[in-house]
Amino acid sequence: MDENSLSGKAVVIGAGTMGGGIAADLANAGWTVYLLDVRREAAAAGKERVLTQRPPLLFLPEFADRITIGDTASDLAVLANADWVVEAVAESMPIKQAVLSQVEAHCGPQTLVTSNTSGLGLTAMSAHCGNDFRRRFFGTHFLNPPRYLKLLEVIPTPDTDPALLAGFIRFAEAVLGHRVVRARDTPGFISTRLWIAHLMDTIHTAIEQGVTIETVDALTGPLIGRPRSATFRMADVVGLDIIAAVAANQYAALLDDPLRERLLLPDVLRRLIDTGRTGEKAGAGFYKREGKEILTLDLTTLEYRPRREPPVDELLRLMALPLGERLPSLVDPDETGDDPPAVFLRTILNTLFQYGNAVGPEIADGVLAIDQTMRWGFGWERGPFAMADRWKPSWRIGQGAANYLAGDSFRGDPGKYRTFTEAYVPIPQAAEYLRLEGLRPPLEALQTQPVASTVQLGGGVSCLEFHTKMNTLQPKTFAFLREAIRHPPEQPTGFVIGNQGTHFSAGYDLYRIVDWIEHEHFTTIDQEMAACQKAFLAIKYAPFPTVAAVHGFTLGGGCECALHCAVILAASELSMGLPELQVGVIPCGGGIKEVLIRELARLGKDADPLAAARAALRTLILPRSSSNAYEAQRQGWLRPKDQIIHNTDRLIYEAKLRTIALALAGYRPPPKAKIPVSGARGLVVLRADIEALRAEGQLTDYDTHVADRIALVLCGGEDAAPGVVGEQALLDLERALFVELCRRPETLARMRHLLETGKHLRN
After folding, report:
1. Pairing relation of β-strands 424-426 and 723-726?
2. Which residues in the chain show pLDDT less than 50?
């Protein structure tokens, strides 16, 4: 099993929430999965949960057909030909040992076997099994749900074959899309050990120092590089009863742990659980929703009260700074003195650093594994040791604090990290995890501006990346695109258009368009949309391959940019589409004609232009952006030659390889497109389709007006004759109708409403 195992057969034993999530993870990757439980009814219920859970576990509902249910009494024969068996039964050592005995008796000699335990000892679990079985056995700790949480801890035993383990790690990263950390066979491994200790210590400290729930969540979320769920909100989402159970398990297993007493429940948490207030699933925990209002628990009275938000202006000021520059303003005594929030943060972060350094040698080989675990598993921008490199000795709490700083830094020299033997070793630099940060620009190019830049990926391939907020597009972006294509480095192999931000591009900068409309700069709008069209045509007809590496939001102009590339490589988690109708305009970067071209190609040789136009119309006027790349493929945004990549961290690397492959295959730009249109007679049919959708309530009156403008482009114009037109004719029509719509008050109302509320106005 390795990165070439794009299909295979797996058996998941245990159809609970975790087992179902793992089965879905494998089905998403194209594997055939057998989901077994003691009773077939339990397996059926597990598969049903896979289909109904929200957010969805499967990329497409039909992927459930890859999952077959069964029971362990009559279906263990399927283990004989399995490539991988995952044990995911209850966290009970006797139960897991019994299941492993069954697996050993029925699996083939080629089968890898893993236990999805969150902390039970793997060596003890498999001690009763034979030598060959133990060679093929290790732990795989997925986080729930596996589709959305990329961390996968693998835990070898002393008997695990290193070569088999290495092959599995390559498979898990390349095929399943996870990032793997090797942990040691200790209670809770790395993730649970640090997470539960830090969470419980934070709750205890908040109670002891009298810090409110709102303040704690404001301090421990994005402000210090962590998710918005922060501390108390995350506890509610996980479930207070689950947190209590994890803490109890760790308390029982870790007799000498430095924070063992912090794993005991504070009275507040115990009383919440006793009264059934176990978090979001119970409707109340540390927070409680009443109608549209969210109330907060008072940690002293245990009564709910209206939320008291901390000062917003100061938080916004700090959030504008990089994380490393925020720390002094948050915790440095010289800047904050005895300010209670600063004391609170210093306390919990000091404890975290000291704890990581104390237990690190027991749970991991070095600080890198711990930092990666907290980043990949819990969404932290920096792990505890990377933050500690910024930590001054004067920021420590108390005189008895451990000297967690070995020398001056956990990282030591650039490119190295500290093992727990005090030695510094190089940070592994796997080629497939190519990082754009720090790469140098092409030798012959200006190619660095505030809105965009290009860097060399190697092999003659350059990457063009956007740099604006949410990578929105603006006039300087289009100028940069055209210049980069017109004056590439000498003898270019090709271009990757992509970045490693949160989103590929959320589309055109709407604030800029609103400003132009309000000042009646309609000529400017026309000129800038023309510049956009020219830039995208330059991408399409470049003399070398252009490959879009898309992920996250790929909307509006961002989608149109990708549609003009020779090939698209898409991260599996992708929101792609052209939702312009919802803001009162039509796509104007060539999106309408590209969707029409795709529909004509899909229908094949001698395609009926009217059938293609009708299909394109529905895509464009019922704008539901894809929720993943497989939906984007089904909706037509991705073609058969485009490729879906499950590991977003490998996207740029894979795009580079695809660019080189296209060049080696003798890439030539496509011929200038000649597009069949159905003309005025087709427009009559499309208008009838639009009216039917309006009558069904799917379109508002103004939606109907905007949809009519889209139909005009698809048919070639109001009075067009059926025939073949060039791209420029449709681009000119797109642009003219876009400007026309910008003059309408309904369009301005939609744009303002979206910018002010984040919601679409259906006027």
Report:
1. unpaired
2. 399-408, 443-446
Check which CATH number belongs to the domain holding 118 and give it: 3.40.50.720
Residue 444 in any domain: the answer is: no
Measure the N-to-C terminal CA separation of the chain; round to a whole number of Å.
55
The Cβ of residue 11 has, within 10 Å, a number of other Cβ atoms equal to: 30
- Are residue 39 and residue 137 in the same domain, yes or no? yes
Shared domain check, 634 and 616: no
**Residue 466: what pLDDT?**
93
Domain count, the chain: 4
**Quick one: 638 and 720 in the same domain?**
no
Residue type at position 747: T
Task: Give the relative orientation of helices 745-757 and 727-742 as an angle to the nearest 10 degrees.
Answer: 80
Q: What strands lie across the sheet with 452-458, from one edge to the other?
A: 452-458, 461-466, 494-498, 546-555, 567-577, 643-645
Within-domain flag for 93: yes
560 and 590, same domain (yes or no): no
Q: CA-CA distance, 40 to 50, in Å (whole number)? A: 15
Question: Of the candidates 101, 99, 250, which has an alpha carbon nearest to the alpha carbon of residue 186?
Answer: 250
Domain endpoint, select from 426, 461, 494: 426
Asked whether the beta carbons of 461 and 660 are under 8 A apart, the reply is yes
Element housing 386 (H / E): helix 384-388
pLDDT of residue 399: 40
Residue 415: its pLDDT value, please? 78
Which structure tokens are listed for 468?
């604006």
**338 and 237 share a domain?**
yes
Q: Look at residue 694 and give its three-state secondary structure.
A: helix
Three-state secondary structure readout of 536-591: HHHHHCCCCCEEEEEEEEEECHHHHHHHCCCEEEEEEEEEEECCHHHHCCCCCCCH
Q: Give the integer Cα–Cα distance in Å for 540 and 546.
A: 7
Query: Under a CB-based contact definition with an 8 Å cutoff, are residues 167 and 8 in contact?
Result: no
**3-state secondary structure (DSSP) of residue 629:** helix
| Centroid of chain to Cα 542 | 31
Residue 515 and residue 572 share a domain: yes
Question: What is the 3-class SS of 364-382, one letter each residue?
Answer: CCEHHHHHHHHHHHHCCCC
CA dihedral angle for residue 711, residue 713, residue 714, residue 717, rounded to 10 degrees: 90
Shared domain for 260 and 331, answered yes or no, is: yes
81 and 220 within one domain: no
Closest of 352, 345, 397, 348 to residue 370, by C-alpha: 352
Q: Which structural domain, as residue segments, surrounds residue 366?
A: 191-426
